[in-house]
Amino acid sequence: MGSRPQQNGQGDHPDQRGADRIKRTAGQLSVGLVGAAALWWIGSRRLASLRVCLSSKKLRQDLRVCLISDLHSSRYGRHQSRLMSRIKQARPDLIVMPGDIYDDERSDNRATDELLAQLPPVAPTFYSSGNHEMRFSGYEQLPDRVKQHGVCWIDGQTRQLKIKGQTIVLSGISDPERSYQRTRRQFDRLPKVGDYHILLSHRPHLIEAYEDSGADLIVSGHAHGGQWQLFGRGLIAPGQGLFPEYSKGSYRLGETTLVVSPGLMKNHLPRFFNRPTVVFIDIKGEA
């Protein structure tokens, strides 16, 4: 009779037990990584606020400006409730929107209309174009559409208003998507004024024009915060390429200050360590 194979009294072969442990560990790591990625993704889409503090000898009273850019018709709660709550709590004196609030790639822009309708009762609201407004099939009708909500369309225009008894001058630059020559002419026609002057211009990298603008404050967007923030710096931005210099926050340009919004878009490309953001600019009066 042939001999019977001996049974291992300790169960499975040691190599098999080791393989099982590796599989279990790999599975646990996979679940953990997926969970971490999900939390990271959800966190990167949560609304954030950014505060920028400036000062000016042209102002007697403090001024708070709310900067909203690059919404791309993203939605924050029913009827934009979460975004409006954040804005109302800050009690801004002025709201500025330098473009890409509507999105030409979306068939439904009701989310933008819902927001625009609620802003003027909070504070005077001014809107200039971005590249996505310029690509809009109904671009010629956009100024009237915006004005129906009580928002001032300011492309190629300059307006004055009184806030807390002091004159604030606002100018808007049309995005150069359709005509750089028109944009250049608008820069050349900007008034040189003694009152505090705020310029709305979508693209943050037009540095030479900004330095010569005579504006005290320039508000921009377009860069989306560099899309991914790595070690406190954006990864990529249109018009600037990799590691853009102007993607989020404030930058001193001679006698003017440029403030770049990371934007509020959450519809298309993923944002990592770069939450959609509404910006509040506090300007301390030192006159």
Average pLDDT reading: 89
Structural domain tally: 2
Helix content: 25-40%
Q: Using the alpha-carbon principal axes, give the shape.
A: elongated
H-E string: HEEHEHEHHEEEHEHEEEEEEEE
- At the fourth level of CATH, the homologous superfamily of the largest domain is Metallo-dependent phosphatases
Structural class: alpha/beta
> Which regions are unreliable across 5 or more consecutive residues at pLDDT < 50?
none
Number of E strands: 16
- Biggest beta sheet attributes: 6 strands, mixed
**CATH-level-2 architecture of the largest domain:** 4-Layer Sandwich
Q: What is the helix tally?
A: 7
What name is given to the CATH topology of the largest domain? Answer: Purple Acid Phosphatase, chain A, domain 2
Strand order of the largest sheet: 1-16-2-3-4-5
CA-atom Rg in angstroms: 26 Å
Q: What percentage of amino acids are in beta strands?
A: 25-35%
Quote the distance from N terminus to C terminus: 110 Å
CATH class of the largest domain: Alpha Beta
